[in-house]
Amino acid sequence: MGADEKPIPVATDQDRPYWEGAKEHKLVLQRCTSCSLLSAEPRVVCPRCQGTEFDWTQVSGRGVIHSYGILRQSPAPGFRGEGPVVLVKVQIDEEPTCRITANLLVDESQYDDLDLDLPVEVTFEDRGDVTLPQFKLA
Amino acid sequence: MPFNAKNKVAIVGVGQSEFGRRLERPIGALAVDASLAAIADAGLTLADIDGVATFPEGPGPGVGPVEGVSSAPLGWMVESLGLRNLDWWTCTGGGSVGNISSAIALAIQALATGSCKHVLVWRAMFQPGPRGPKKPAAEQKSDKPRPAPRFSGPNAYSVPYGVADGPTYFAPAYMRYMKLFGATREHMATYAVTMRAYANKNPQAMFYDQPMSFDDYMSCRMIADPLCLYDCDMPIDGAAAIVLTTAERAQDLPQRPAYITALGSGGFDWTLLPPEEYMDATAGGLGRTLWASTDLKPSDMSGAMFYDGFAPDIYWWLEGLGFCGRGEAFEWIQDGRIALDGELPLNTFGGQVSEGRMHGMGHWIEATRQIQGRADDQPGDGARQIPNVENILVATGMTGHGSGAILSTAPR
Questions:
Q1: CB of A87 within 8 A of CB of B172?
Q2: Cα gap B304→B111, rounded to integer Å
Q3: Contact yes or no for B172 and A87 at CB 8 A
Q4: Which of residues 49 through 108 in chain A touch B, CB cutoff 8 A?
């Protein structure tokens, strides 16, 4: 069986700046205009101040590993037969409650060295006509 | 938190259908099997049931529920059982709210306040996938690569990265726990092997006939490191049911009543916490409300039934419910402490990891059987029976919310 293609994100009106930013290799996050909370995924109401107005801002793309896992057989389409993939939760430097889900692009030989709090930085993967934020060890 | 329903309600009957992998028998028929068994076990008839509760959930991604075939929702069950005296019903679930314990908790409150007299609670589980003989090769999937599927909304931030099921969600949570506190797979082997030994004494368990050694566990296939296959519960087809009534009415029924002597719930108060810490918040919230509802203490528990969709769940329960300190559970479960003659016999039916996934009903049924003194392999042998049992804590749910209760042999 040939390899299926991996899933592609589709922007919506709620998160278009995130994916447009990624296309330009920028990590652009939604920010509450009242309390400046940065969120990894778009919100309608700010859970910190209950504000309902947001803008978008580019962040450094640097952070640390909050946690990770090594997916040996992800059931997501396109991952079967791909070999292991590292799933990472990145806590970004600008906001400790903001954690981004991505893959950590590392060699299998580095798996044993992975740990919490290791510094990472954003990188970008083109997939179809979309670009995904990913992370690598800094 | 005052618990005004304390000692007013008891579980008086339990029932289970056949369990198996992709059974031919439709899920609705299994749910009826389990319900009729529980009602008969309670010494009641269908005409006595005037309250019903369940926790439904779609059968799984890509599988549309077909009532009676791949799901057993409330209305379908009421009709199929021919219930005509319904005074009370509830259906927790939807938007990932609730679990079977929250349905049971509402049933307890309904009985205590006189809304109804006898409540049937069921849970039916459907394992997605084809039934029956395999299709000819020509009808199977094409070997051509499929085009990339597209995802928007929350799925755009998960599925393209390989996150698409329970293990991919739980792996980072368990990894963080292990790294923070120094837990290893060797520690978890104790849980898995203990569960399998219990399951080997539980004829209902999927793994009744299959022992597991430490080496079996350690050499098990990894799914999403640090989770291996044996850390995951086994998806099955099947159904389980319990019957509850008031403590007063329970006196006239054949089974020893399992009195509800404490009740609590936790969850949803994890604003801005990462998912890796939801479980702490859930178990901690349940601990706070449950212990506030009773004078009983963790040391008064004869045993515990803790939801184990994934094996590491038990660490969060043990810590959040106060049996040990934060980051201590992986060492606490060693040295026979969770075995039948240990300080806290845990999941004596084998847990979901060795009995099969019944979304918490297996835990409630075993808690009831322990209190009733009939945790048997063969009838009357007491093969899994906790000696001198008095109180069993049952806690189910986990990812973000959970509920639980203490079942006791007498009012407390």
A1: yes
A2: 24
A3: yes
A4: 66-79, 85, 87-89, 91, 97, 99, 101-103
Beta strand extents in chain A (DSSP E only): 8-10, 28-32, 38-39, 54-58, 62-71, 85-92, 99-103, 119-127, 130-137
Nearest CA among B349, B278, B353 for reference residue B316? B278
- pTM across the whole model: 0.94
Return residues 320-379 of B near A (CB < 8 Å): none
Q: Do B156 and A15 touch (CB under 8 A)?
A: yes
Query: Per the CB < 8 Å rule, is A127 touching B180?
Result: no
Q: For B313-360, what is each residue's pLDDT tens digit?
A: 999 999 999 999 999 999 999 999 999 999 999 999 999 999 999 999
Reported as a single tens digit per residue, the pLDDT across B113-150 is 999 999 999 999 988 777 766 655 555 556 677 788 99
Cross-chain residue pair A2–B224, CB shorter than 8 Å: no
Q: What is the pLDDT of residues B377-388, one digit of tens each?
A: 999 999 999 999
Q: Residue ranges of the domains in chain A?
A: 16-137
Distance from CA of B274 to the nearest CA of A (A): 7
How far off is chain B from A107, nearest CA to CA, in Å?
15
